[in-house]
Specification:
binds nicotinamide-adenine-dinucleotide, seven-stranded mixed β-sheet, Rossmann fold, binds glycine, globular, 13 strands, 20% strand, 13 helices, 2 domains, Dehydroquinate synthase-like, alpha domain
Amino acid sequence: MRTLQVSLADRSYPIYIDRGALSAGVLRQHVRASQVLLVTNETVAPLYLDVLMKNLEGLQVDVLQLPDGEKFKTLAVLESIFDQLLEKKHSRTTTLIALGGGVVGDMVGFAAACYQRGVDFIQVPTTLLAQVDSSVGGKTAVNHPRGKNMIGAFYQPKAVIIDVDVLSSLPSREFAAGVAEVIKYGLIRDVDFYHWLQANLDALMARDPDVLAEAILRSCQNKAEVVAADETEQGNRALLNLGHTFGHAIETATGYTELLHGEAVAVGMVMAAEMSADLGWLARKDVDAIRTLIGRAGLPVAPPPSVSVSRCRELMSLDKKVHDGALRLVLMRAIGESIVTADYPPEALNTLLARCCAAGE
Ligand code: NAD
Ligand code: GLY
């Protein structure tokens, strides 16, 4: 079992990564008392619920299956978690377990942060995106009709248990969307990992278990280091949003229907690389290499034709990274060296959008 630590003083926790980790027995070690609420969804339950349940024999284990999909990441569905906890008389020493992708993980984490002012929770992520990003670092939330992840809390899990084998059932598009977040770590702070990905991408896309485990480990190492240094995003944690400002604008402009989040981030990373080159920070050959790597993962490298310059600009101006009217962007000084900055000429952004997005309203 490969084990990493997220170092946050008395809130530190381990990340376990292995083939077969679901049945390896580590889960039980992190359940504090006799009650567990295991929350999953209707897609993941038939695949992995039984194997997880075998770890929990002898405990009071209640199971809640949520409907599947981002549109159910709401306060109303969150309430169904509280209903279940109260109906089954869960006390303050209960443990919530999130078995699923980022939607389940973010919701269960937020439920754990709120129930009786905070109970334990364990992340068992089952998508690549959740394994390399959302399950680590303690960002928890639900959506509000006016904005994604607008109601939430920073609340760390007690452990993250990553079973590489569960990725075998993940649809290809979902898998590739997770690879976008893996590539992100190479681009923001780990040039060696970037080169490793260039060499191993084909094996990664073929879901070679050893290559997958290595990619997940190195991604989680990067995420754990960033989170340990800046848990609540006062500074460098924002680097984890490389490609996200462009990506969110594209997701919103397309009504969340055309691209998965990781696909939109992939496009956004290419746009950030392009703009970094326009500013003279990144070599053009590096932009081409980034585009090639992202394309090899089966990810899009340009916004869909329906995304216009004016809509993209308008949506970017609403981004959470606007401070005092200035839009901060994550840009690259070199591969593996990103910065968060508002220090760029406004024309640079206009030029980029004019080049990448469709003309018109
Ligand atoms: P998701 O949770 O919707 O999962 C994608 C699909 O895969 C779903 O249909 C799910 O049921 C299915 N699935 C999950 N595991 C499977 C498996 N092993 N086999 C087959 N199907 C499986 O999406 P996601 O990409 O995992 O997460 C996206 C969410 O994560 C968004 O809500 C986003 O806001 C959030 N997020 C949070 C953070 C954070 O730091 N907390 C970071 C990034 C994203
Ligand atoms: N996914 C961005 C973060 O955890 O900060």
